[in-house]
Amino acid sequence: MSSNDDFPKKFSSTRRTFIQGMSLLPAASLLGTTSLFPRMALADTPPTAQVNTTGLAVTDSEVTVGILHSVTGTMAISETGSVQAEKLAIDQINASGGVLGRKIKFIQEDGASDWPTFAEKAKKLLVNDKCASVFGCWTSASRKAVLPVFEQYNGMLYYPTFYEGLEQSKNVIYTGQEATQQIIAGLNWVNKTKGAKTFYLLGSDYIWPRTSNKIARKHIENFMEGTSVVGEEYFPLGHTQFNSVINKIKLKKPDVIYAIIVGGSNVAFYKQLKAAGIDLSKQTLLTISVTEDEIDGIGGENIAGAYSCMKYFQSLDNPNNKEFVAAFKKMWGEKTVIGDVTQAAYLGPWLWKMAVEKAGSFDIDKIAEASPGIEFTKAPEGYVKIHPNHHLWSRTRVGMAQTDGQFKVVFETPDLIEPNPFPKGYQ
Amino acid sequence: MFSDYSLTELGSIFVMQGFAGLILFSVFLLMALGLAIIFGQMGVINMAHGEFMILGAYVTYFTSQFFLNYLPSLFGIYFFIAMILAFIASGALGMAVEWLMIRHLYKRPLDTLLATWGLSLILQQVYRSVFGPREVGVELPGWMMGSLNLTDAIEVQINGLFVMGLTIAITIAVALLMYRSSWGKQVRAVVQNRTMAGAVGINTERVDRLTFGLGCGIAGVAGSAFTMIGSTGPTAGQLYIVDTFLVVVFGGAQSLIGTIASAFTISQAQSTMEFFLSGSMAKVLTLLGVIIILMLRPQGLFVIKVRR
Amino acid sequence: MTHIGRSFFLARKDVVGIVVLAILLVVVLPLTLDSFRLQFVGKYLTYAFVALGLVLCWGYAGILSLGQGVFFGLGGYCMAMYLKLEASSVENTKIQSTPGIPDFMDWNQITELPFFWKPFHSFPLTLVAIVAVPALFAFIIGFAMFKRRVGGVYFAIITQAIAAVLTILIVGQQGYTGGINGITDLRTLHGWDIRTDAAKTVLYFVCVALLFACILLAYYVKSSKLGRILVAMRDKEDRVRFSGYDVANFKVFVFCLAAALSAIGGAMFTLQVGFMSPSFVGIVPSIEMVIYCAVGGRLSILGAVYGTLLVNWAKTSFSESFPELWLLGLGGLFIAVVLAFPNGLAGIWQTYVAPRLGFLSGTKPTDPGAAPVAAE
Question: What is the CA angle A321-A339-C180, rounded to 5?
């Protein structure tokens, strides 16, 4: 799948109906975004020499971007949704006239769940293919591996996953939440509405859960009244036996189990929790690692009643999201679910398009400069805005898992939360 | 860490923790049984063991979907049918693999390792292409969920009991088959001296194929049972492979008793340490302990004679 | 790069083979590939060090280690620790709460450099450590196991378990090791920026030079008495033991040698790619490295280099065009090599190509290892 050439072949029927469907969608959804920049009418195609001074792969009719995710290996489970969302966004942008009058063509590379491969492929996309931007990566490790490449060759990466923070780069736009955006509001909510005082922190053993739990612990110990952490524990990635820790939880009887377990371990953890007779309608469990995608594997009946803290849920009730969900299912099938990261990945191509049009150029430096302040009013999650630190302002929401695999939104912060990748007092 | 709790609380926790250890023991034993047959009896290192397990898990998933859609009234018992189907599917694939690949390699055990590793890569990709890259959730009948309350404080997982029962049943069946049936005698004869076994009229090729198929079939049943406690996805099989091999090697490869004893030792050690330490450190210490003991006593716990 | 002058331990066909490989790596590839692709070749060649070690250890001595990634990783980590300390100077890290220590330590509330990092401030000590640490580790493993006559399958499985343990340990101790992300963002070696294209080209040639040094070393070992004992041991261990040799010592030696070679590869990898992560230490890369060696021909020193290049080139180009097919291809390759071509590329060469080329078949194999694959 080196380019989107074979894309129409594979999905021709869905795609055709999809484009027809798109033309029927309320025109506002497309005009809404472009009308933010009235000077850039759809037919306006400035000459290539003017909008591309650094030799990117931009012609008079096309611009090439890269998609870099794992489609093989252990991470393919998680990254599939992001790839689908990015292709959907690119398709929609092309259907609405492209970027600066140019159609987007994408080159997809496989990171194979292997960090050095990510670095190798990133280099190929930037050096060989001269991609005008890259949408990709999922794990922190893959992002850390490609970051020096993007900085050295001056590329632009749109990174979709919620992550641990402690990073900021001119060459990356983080469309997911950094840790404080996901953690603090959720903890405050559970403290206020459930009266939770004691917390048991769990996590898979790598940087994101550890850093997130560190922030959670600081918040619990220093920023909330009378609350404490009664246990903190980590398991190797892929661990499948949780009975011992479940017994420890039973012994300590925390008000809240705060779980950041990922991947296959997730499935084992919730199944064993349920089997051990811990009723999630009575025992509060708050997680920041379970989206609709994960529930697919866990099974709704095993996790119903748990609370998940995200910025997006498929069940969000707003017109943007209804259109997005309908378009997504039309393209990828009725049964696919959309998780938080999938939505964040969908934002990438749109935010890039808006940055290019605001800058009036494909040049990376100009896009990096133009990005802060960009608002995307048609985002499925509602409304997002790029902060000068290249993260997004977004709301934090808490959803309760239902047996059908969806979340019921029970709380939403009234204001957008400011991204703060280097939070003071939490390090 | 115990000063804040009453004696009854501590007592019930220890009972439940002991039970957790027993479940882990059953899981390890179930994983290792199929491999113990293949590796211990035939000397074949089957790196695709995890993928045979996952095949069983996928069969279970599709059986559950079938019953949900067409026979919802019988959903309560689908799991038993799924296990039989899983055994047949994995066993059949195993026999095919033996015929195509393994039988050419009996004289080169290290090469079976490479070839079956290749097989595991192929199977993973096939699962991904056919069943999709995402994990699937297997729905369980209601009676298998939840726990039994023995006392107010002691709760015992039903699916844990189920895995234990299944493990005991399969272990006994394997023991009977190996040590009491005439087929078992043939298998052991072939293992001890292939040429002589052939000379007295045993069809060694057939014995090999059935032994390999049996080992893979048991792996399929294990995979089916693990849908209750773990995840089902294209790469989930890899999670089990190191643990499985260590259990078999630690036990002394050719001894069924050894495999049982080693599964028991490793599971109890891990479960106890998990209770007192963090999960990650418990795992490292358990594996390290096993490796060090293996260095000191390379033949494993129980042994007939293991030397190249 | 030609060493014909001192070819006392090299047969004529070996010299020809080395010269051909040298021309390929030093002249042909740098002239035909752009610097971007050449960097890939440089990266692949670092795996060739591991494959080289495996030829000695597996092909000649019959010891299959599934944990070579451990040594590759240890060598790479030693180099990465030095580079990371250089990149974490007080000026570069003044936004941290403790300046002067690597960034990931700061994120994990470590306020002082751990003792085992301190030696890596010194470049000479680092160079020693790159070879010595993995060799020492291999010595401990090898001594414990070979003295007790563990071999074959058991050794393979135990080394595999060691690889698993080390990965979990590195990932778990992220304050000291960088965790699953590894040690990233390496910039300079002794003040020399290793990220530029020019530096990468220089590193490529350094890597090639080291590789040839290691190839010559491997030929020397192979042609020495030690090499012949290794082969004898592989084929009839008891007979060698009865002849009065201490079999275990030879095995320990060759295992340590293979570990040291892997470690050099690991260090070169870190320099060229700019980071090191636990994903090289694990089981999967360790087994993949065995396949490089098997594809090249487990008995052929030069074959190891060709096998590594071929598999990796195929991997890169396949995964660019058909990512889904790549795993099927790799899996099929494993099976095909084992079933149909147990002596790999070298076997194909010797059987089908060499007889047609007169000047090479002039010296008919007196190669002690050229026997068909050993029965275990």
Answer: 145
Contact in structure between C255 and C142 (CB atoms under 8 Å): yes
ipTM above 0.90, yes or no: no
Q: Is the pLDDT confidence value at B170 over 90? A: yes
Substitution target in B130, B240, B278, B286 with the highest count of A β-carbons within 10 Å is B278
Per-residue model confidence as pLDDT tens digits over C168-198: 889 888 889 988 889 988 888 888 898 888 9
Strand duo A307-310 + A284-287: pairing: parallel
Which residues does chain A have within 8 Å of residue C316's beta carbon, measured at their own beta carbons?
A: 120
Of B20, A222, A164, A291, residue with least CA distance to C107: A164
Q: Do C36 and A147 touch (CB under 8 A)?
A: no
> Residue ranges per domain, chain B?
29-238
Angle between helices C283-296 and C35-54 (to 10 degrees): 90
Interval C290-301: pLDDT, tens? 989 998 988 899
Tokens of C7: 């070819």
Set out the domains of chain A in order of their start, with CATH numbers.
Answer: 6-176+317-393 (3.40.50.2300), 179-310+397-412 (3.40.50.2300)
What per-residue confidence (pLDDT) applies to A106? Answer: 95
Residue A17 binned pLDDT confidence (cut-offs 50, 70, 90):
very low
Question: A residues 274-293 near B, CB within 8 Å?
Answer: 274-277, 293
pLDDT at A288 over 90: yes
Could you give phi then psi for residue C340, rounded to 5 degrees? -100, -35
What is the C-alpha to C-alpha distance for residues B175 and B186, in angstroms, rounded to an integer? 14
3-state secondary structure of C110: coil
In C321-350, which positions are buried (b, 16+ CB within 10 angstroms) versus exposed (e)?
A: eebbebbbbbbebbbebbbebbbbbbbebb
pTM of whole model > 0.90?
Answer: no
Q: Which residues of A touch C108 (CB under 8 A)?
A: 210
Interchain pair C324, A141: CB under 8 A: no
Separation CA A127–CA A129 (nearest Å): 6
Range A410-422 average pLDDT: 94
> How confident is the model over A232-268, as pLDDT tens digits?
999 888 888 898 899 889 888 999 999 999 877 888 8
Q: Cα A345–A348–A349 angle (5° rounding)?
A: 120
Q: What is the pLDDT of residue B1?
A: 54
Q: Kindly give the parts of chain C with pLDDT less than 50.
A: 1-7, 361-376
Taking CB atoms within 8 Å and a gap of at least 24, the contacts of B262-270 are B262/B32, B262/B300, B262/B301, B263/B25, B263/B28, B263/B29, B263/B32, B264/B25, B264/B29, B265/B301, B266/B28, B266/B290, B267/B21, B267/B22, B267/B24, B267/B25, B267/B27, B267/B28, B268/B21, B268/B25, B270/A241, B270/B24
What chain B residue is nearest to C167 in terms of C-alpha separation?
B284
Greater confidence (C156 vs A34) lies with C156
Q: How many residue contacts between A and C have a Cβ separation below 8 Å?
A: 103
Count residue pairs from B and C with Cβ separation < 8 A. 128
Beta-carbon separation of C287 and B117 below 8 A: yes
In angstroms, what separates the C-alpha of A302 from chain B's closest C-alpha? 9
Under an 8 A CB cutoff, do A297 and B137 touch? yes
Suggest the residue from A71, A244, A253, A282 to mutate for an interface test with chain B (most B CBs closer than 10 A): A244
> How far away is chain C from the Cα of A379, in angstroms, using its nearest Cα?
31
Closest listed residue to residue A145, CA positions, set A170, A177, A129, A121: A121
Does B133 contact A71 at a Cβ distance shorter than 8 Å?
Answer: yes
Answer whether B291 sits within 8 Å of C161, measured CB to CB. yes
Q: Which of A13-17, A367-371, B98-102 has the lowest mean pLDDT?
A: A13-17
Domain segments of chain C as ranges: 4-370
Closest CA to C234 of C216, C214, C254, C220: C254
Q: Residue A345's pLDDT band (boundaries 50, 70, 90)?
A: very high
